[in-house]
Amino acid sequence: MNIALWIVTGLLAAAYLLGGAFKVITPKEKIAASGSSGRWVEDFSDGGVKAIGALEVLAAVGLVLPAVLDVAPVLVPLAALGLVLLMLGAAVVRFRRHEPKLVVVDLVYVLLAAFVAWGRFGPESFTG
């Protein structure tokens, strides 16, 4: 179970680090022009998109660094829980925009982050 949690955590951290950094450094207009999956930015201000990106980067760091450094490892499941909330919000935005295929993708991310939160709060906790 611990190995599965680390694999999912690593994949989530990589995805959110790259995606979040992209949102932070890329202008909103360029994100919107990048394809149908980036059209959601039309519903947010430039600062809002940057804030979402910054939250994703912080969550990616929070998924890995506290456990690796053994400093406040309780932050790992809290970061995963934060991603659950962030992606539930993303799913709501996609639902309102009538993008059902992308809602499914967002819900897969919710399930993966929820798995990490459950595993690190419960059976494979770093504190127990």
How does the SSE layout of this entry go?
Layout: H1 2-25, H2 28-33, H3 46-69, H4 75-96, H5 100-121
Helix pairs in contact: 1-3, 1-5, 3-4, 4-5
Structural shape: globular
| Mean pLDDT metric | 94
Counted up, domains total: 1
Bin the strand percentage: under 5%
The percentage helix is over 70%
In angstroms, what is the radius of gyration? 15 Å
Number of helices: 5
**Protein structure class:** mainly alpha
Number of strands: 0
Q: What series of H and E elements makes up the topology?
A: HHHHH
Amino-to-carboxy terminus distance: 15 Å
Q: In terms of per-residue confidence, which ranges show pLDDT below 50 for 5 or more consecutive residues?
A: none
Reported for the largest beta sheet, the result is: none
For the structure shown, list the relevant keywords.
mainly alpha, 128 residues, 5 helices, 77% helix, 0% strand
Describe what this molecule looks like in 3D.
The longest helix is centred in the first third of the chain and has 24 residues, at 2-25. Helices cover 77% and strands 0% of the residues. It has helices spanning 2-25, 28-33, 46-69, 75-96, 100-121. α3 packs antiparallel against α4. The chain has one domain. The model has no long low-confidence stretch (mean pLDDT 94). The protein contains 5 helices and no strands. The protein is mainly alpha-helical. InterPro entries: DoxX.
